[in-house]
């Protein structure tokens, strides 16, 4: 595995193997000194053309726990503002000696494009509305651990609620969850569903209350306030009434069901109840698992080469 | 195993059991009992052996904590070997001030043990670390020697030594 660009590139066994590797990373993260020398000397550069403190920090922490060197390249303080092209930026930084780029870009497909200009590994940390593969992997890991489904998600019922159309998280999650065998229902107003949703291996509903009692996982997406300006939603209040998770709605979920959210949360919009008081909330586990999953991805891309053969002793 | 061509048995199941019993007694003798002793099996071949040794120690003295250590991320050849799923580290107690007995099936180049010594540092500072192996097959590449040995077994570098509760064979 050279790059991680899209969940589409992974089959079920590749996803499960990454989640198994994540078990090791969780154990490392729980040690008194959570650091191993596995990626010593490797240089990991975060290249964020769009702000995301939590994802960048998560990757940074992951790289440091594996003893990789990290560099942060923030666009606001860089020569991109002086008119340098994406290609020149990549080639310049790569010339300093880079083993992996972690890329966040507002344009779908930018990470794919970058693979042509450098020999370094590329990890997609979110590109436009397209993909956010490490988010999907950490969501899978959280479900696998919380519901004890080590061998896949056969028969699990997962609803993803909210702005599906503009969400790379939804796209990646749908692919990952269905690849592992889950049954996914998208719940959203018609204006926030993608036009091509008929081709997706999912059910669609506009009625959250009807879906709730059968769920194993309720996955809420962030509603971006700028969608109001696009006239896709009449008002946040109306959205909240129809699709927000209230304490009353949470009571309709089965007792074992998980509540998940990729963050950052809009309290009072998609999340009306206090998530701290929802028994099924694993939202902070998602954040913790995010670091371990990103360690696994970095290790898989930079640390695991060919088998030497012979004995380990 | 009998009937399996290309395999040469060097220790039978009984031999392995006797070797473990003897090593258990040596551990007790060397440490004047089992106070402060922690057995740590190296993933994966050493884990079952550490469990067996724990049984021996319990029968002759008293029960000791048993852990398992995965050294994959500490190896000097990291990345050249696949990580074995499910072989996660578990160290049940703080290692500060304890006597850790590292347990493995075969001692060969010594690189796994070096990685294990480094990994142990992250769990605390043992008072002493000792090494128990079923087979010492030679070919050391580092200044590392075992404290307890089931059998010294001269081998060629390209031979494969397999240890299980059913015995030890060379392939």
In short:
The complex is a heterodimer of chains A (313) and B (171). Chain A is an alpha/beta fold. Chain A has helices spanning 12-29, 53-65, 86-94, 110-114, 133-146, 168-179, 208-211, 226-229, 236-243, 247-250, 283-302, and strands spanning 43-48, 69-74, 100-105, 121-127, 157-161, 183-187, 203-205, 217-220, 258-260.
Structural class of chain B: alpha/beta
Name the beta content range of chain A.
Answer: 5-15%
CATH class of the largest domain in chain A: Alpha Beta
For the report, how would you describe the main beta sheet of chain B?
5 strands, parallel
> Distance between termini of chain A?
27 Å
Number of E-state strands of chain B:
8
Q: Provide the helix percentage of chain B.
A: 25-40%
Which H/E pattern describes the elements of chain A?
HEHEHEHEHEHEEHEHHHEH
What's the mean pLDDT score of chain B? 92
Largest interface: A-B, 27 and 35 residues
Low-confidence stretches of chain A: 305-313
- Biggest β-sheet of chain A, characterized? 5 strands, parallel
Helical percentage of chain A: 25-40%
Total individual domains of chain B: 1
- Give helix and strand order of chain B, one letter per element, not per position: EHEHEEHEEEE
Rounded Rg of chain A: 20 Å
Q: Outline of chain A, from the CA principal axes?
A: globular
């Amino acid at each position: 595995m050279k790059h991680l660009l899209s969940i589409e590139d992974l089959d079920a066994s590749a996803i499960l193997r990454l989640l198994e590797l994540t078990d090791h990373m969780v154990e490392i993260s729980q040690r008194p000194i959570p650091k191993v020398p596995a990626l010593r000397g490797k240089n990991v550069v975060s290249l964020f053309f769009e702000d995301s403190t939590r994802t960048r920090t998560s990757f940074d922490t992951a790289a440091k726990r594996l003893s990789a060197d990290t560099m942060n390249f923030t666009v606001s303080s860089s020569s991109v503002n002086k008119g340098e092209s994406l290609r020149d930026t990549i080639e310049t930084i790569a010339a300093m000696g880079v083993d992996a780029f972690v890329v966040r870009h507002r344009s779908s497909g930018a990470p794919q494009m970058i693979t042509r200009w450098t020999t370094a590994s590329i990890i997609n940390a979110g590109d436009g509305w397209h993909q956010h593969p490490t988010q999907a992997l950490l969501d899978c890991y959280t479900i696998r651990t919380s519901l004890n489904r080590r061998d896949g998600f056969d028969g699990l019922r997962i609803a993803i609620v909210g702005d599906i159309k503009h969400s790379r998280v939804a796209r990646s999650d749908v692919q990952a969850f269905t690849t592992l065998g889950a049954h996914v229902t998208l719940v959203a107003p018609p204006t926030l569903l993608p036009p091509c949703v008929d081709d997706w291996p999912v059910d669609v509903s506009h009625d959250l209350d009807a879906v709730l009692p059968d769920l194993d996982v309720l996955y809420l997406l962030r509603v971006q306030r700028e969608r109001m300006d696009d006239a896709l939603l009449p008002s946040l209040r109306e959205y909240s009434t129809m699709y927000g998770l209230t304490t009353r709605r949470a009571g309709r979920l089965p007792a074992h069901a998980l509540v998940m959210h990729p963050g950052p949360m809009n309290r009072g919009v998609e999340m009306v109840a206090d998530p701290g008081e929802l028994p099924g909330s694993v939202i902070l586990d998602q954040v913790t698992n995010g670091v371990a999953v990103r360690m696994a991805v970095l290790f898989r891309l930079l640390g695991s080469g060919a088998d030497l053969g012979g004995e380990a002793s | 195993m009998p009937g399996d061509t290309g395999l040469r048995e060097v220790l039978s199941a009984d031999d392995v059991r006797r070797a473990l019993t003897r090593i258990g007694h040596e551990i007790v003798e060397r440490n004047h009992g089992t106070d402060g002793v922690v057995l740590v099996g190296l993933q994966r071949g050493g884990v079952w052996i550490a469990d067996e040794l724990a049984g021996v120690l319990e029968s002759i003295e008293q029960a000791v904590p048993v852990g398992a250590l995965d050294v994959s991320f500490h190896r000097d050849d990291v990345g050249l070997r696949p990580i074995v799923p499910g072989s996660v580290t578990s160290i049940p107690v703080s290692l500060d001030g304890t006597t850790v007995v590292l347990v493995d099936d075969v001692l060969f180049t010594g690189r796994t043990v070096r990685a294990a010594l480094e990994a142990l540092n992250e769990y605390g500072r043992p008072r002493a670390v000792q090494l128990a192996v079923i087979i010492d097959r030679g070919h050391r590449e580092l200044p590392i020697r075992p404290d307890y040995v089931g059998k010294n077994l001269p081998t060629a570098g390209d031979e494969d030594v397999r240890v299980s509760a059913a015995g030890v064979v060379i392939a």
